[in-house]
């Protein structure tokens, strides 16, 4: 039993109030778990007009989707707390998570649904137009620029794959090599066969008129009119709390992430992850699904912990 001087201990603290975190909260709360979601209120897709490939909610505004998710989680008893989790440490009974306001919450299990940071190319105009005229995922926002003039700002070898995917959506594709390596012979054949224009030279900026993209401008001043630009950010998981607990982020060609198993369990006992923190390519629907799976796995883990404790207590009572 918790004494009056001891802090309330939640079954699960979820750090991150996006699709993954809220889906996990619903799953856990429906299993009558005491759940607290810490939400910094900084969803990655906030600049986007709509979230796509989401069955039954196609094109929903991202902020509207999250508000509905908060209401659903709260209806089952989950607590939603606005704030930023700054530190996490393991305790004999679970975890302490401290917020930016200095308050500390405790939990038996911890789910990190902290998402990732998009490290964008250092080209003026990219950040200002990110999520509107500058995109990265053909599946998330490619349809909205179908048939238009699309430029691909290359910063890595993956730009070729991105270019070929976008060619499915428009016949007017221009690949700006910028800082990427020259395509190999096979790639040149593919680009030429598809009629994709390739421009060499450093990109100086994306010219814009207010919030409207006008052109890709090279260092020599040459400008190419475009309606949208695709870039490949470097994806870096928000992994500060994971590292504080002793974890190490894993490097891959797209960036850095938290390694997890199919149910979301990490290498750290008692710590799970869901969404982009552990899967850099997960879209909204996939992140939500991972939240459900992680929530179910955490509940099952707690069930077995409670069963073990009950068996031990019964055995102790019989011996006394």
TrEMBL record:
<keyword id="KW-0560">Oxidoreductase</keyword>
<dbReference type="Pfam" id="PF07992">
    <property type="entry name" value="Pyr_redox_2"/>
</dbReference>
<feature type="domain" description="FAD/NAD(P)-binding">
    <location>
        <begin position="10"/>
        <end position="277"/>
    </location>
</feature>
<keyword id="KW-0285">Flavoprotein</keyword>
<dbReference type="InterPro" id="IPR023753">
    <property type="entry name" value="FAD/NAD-binding_dom"/>
</dbReference>
<protein>
    <submittedName>
        <fullName>NAD(P)/FAD-dependent oxidoreductase</fullName>
    </submittedName>
</protein>
<dbReference type="InterPro" id="IPR036188">
    <property type="entry name" value="FAD/NAD-bd_sf"/>
</dbReference>
<dbReference type="InterPro" id="IPR050097">
    <property type="entry name" value="Ferredoxin-NADP_redctase_2"/>
</dbReference>
<dbReference type="GO" id="GO:0004791">
    <property type="term" value="F:thioredoxin-disulfide reductase (NADPH) activity"/>
</dbReference>
